[in-house]
Amino acid sequence: MATKTTIRKRFFALAAVTAIASLALTGCSSTETESSDLGELNVQFSWIKNAEFAGEYFADSNGYYSEAGFSSVNLIAGPTATTAVVLSGEALVGLSDPIAVTPVILEEGAPLKIIGATYQKNPFTILSLKDGGNIATAQDLIGKKIGVQAGGNETLFDALLAANGISQDQVTKVPVEYDPAPLVNGEVDGFLAYVTNESITVANLGFEVTNLLFADNGLPFVAEAFVVTQDSIDNNRAGLKAFLYATARGWKDAIADPNEGARLAVEVYGKDLGLDIGKEQQQSVAQNSLLVVTDETVANGLFTISEAMQASNIATLAAAGYNITADQLFDLSLLAEVYKEHPELLE
Questions:
Q1: What is the 8-class DSSP label of residue 140?
Q2: 3-state SS, residue 189
Q3: Which of 75, 205, 241, 306 has the fewest Cβ atoms within 10 angstroms?
Q4: Dihedral (C-alpha) 207, 97, 92, 21: value to the nearest 10 degrees?
Q5: Cβ(182)–Cβ(188) under 8 Å?
Q6: CA atoms of 73 and 241, how far apart (whole Å)
Q7: Which stretches of the chain score pLDDT less than 70?
Q8: Can you give the pLDDT at residue 21?
């Protein structure tokens, strides 16, 4: 991946001439926000450019990021080590989840925080075929061969085992990539997947599937969380708030028109991936209803992580062996300011 000019560096380079604009943005009006020059916006995705990031596509294509003050936008495809990209300064914001971020904070002392989350519910699942592994309960994992991707997904799977009192020697982990072919071919009994992605793909092949949802089996944490550095919070608060504001606008559009979100993925942002429009439409609809829109987001705004939800995430992490406080992991103050300054986002 080519190194790009970071927003943090641009912020300091332009500090002398943009101080007034930045203070005006923090102050509150959308007109003032649009007059700011926040430079380049780099966002690191957790996955390929499919419908998973429909809101970001709308925010970019409808000009919301430019209206918020960014001169250019780079939406960077994953999968990759998102936390490393954010820490390096190559992206202002990276999309990840608490189970991937927490070990980096605790074990490496990384100054990272989560400032909001698109998915209010953990989308991960152990996908199996009903006439194959048929893994319907956590205890069904025992004695099975499970396809697990290296990196954050392996950490996640280990946490699932720990949360359910299953030792790692009771399950055979098989290294796989992200293509569920090993499951379809019978090489593994289960496959670590997204319920809104690979599960749909396999079902569309004509297989009856079983999903063991992490959210219902001890790991009810948020996902597609916005991960940033403490330095950005301290020194580029205007940029982060502009990102949240524009992205919330984009996701409001994605919720209102899931088919257009799918089209943007297939024909524009992921046009070189050979995505299937039918499957992307299914994913777009499913993620909106299952993961993005909840009673809390309807009441308090998209990306909300309430105190109760934060506590649930912290308890989940503790069950997986990671002891961290909510203050160490989350900072929702920027999102609160965005909604105070832009109450129309709640309409």
A1: G
A2: coil
A3: 205
A4: 110
A5: yes
A6: 15
A7: 1-36
A8: 36
One-letter-per-residue 3-state SS of 23-82: HHHHHCCHHHHHHCCCEEEEEECCCCCCHHHHHHHHHHHCCHHHHCCEEEEEEECCCCCH
- Which pair of tokens denotes residue 319? 């069950």
What are the phi and psi torsion angles at 189 (to 5°)? -85, -30
d(CA 312, CA 297): 16
This model's pTM is above 0.90: no
Instruction: Return the DSSP state at 330.
Output: B
**Type of residue numbered 195:** V
Average pLDDT, rounded, for the chain: 89
122-156: b (≥16 Cβ within 10 Å) or e: bbbbbbbbeebbbbeebebbeebbbbbbeebbebb
Query: Cα–Cα distances in Å, from 145 out to 54, 244, 316, 324?
Result: 33, 40, 24, 31
pLDDT value for 163 = 87
**CA-based nearest residue to 37, from 60, 4, 7:** 7
Q: Which two tokens stand for residue 256?
A: 């209102």
Reduced to 3 states (helix: H, G, I; strand: E, B; else coil), residue 236 is: coil
Alpha-helix runs per DSSP H in 144-275: 152-163, 181-184, 198-204, 230-235, 237-256, 258-263
Give pLDDT, residue 153.
85
Contact 331, 241 (CB under 8 A): no
Count CB neighbours of 181 within 10 A: 12
Q: Are 235 and 11 in contact (CB under 8 A)?
A: yes
| Closest C-alpha among 11, 88, 77, 68 to residue 43 | 77
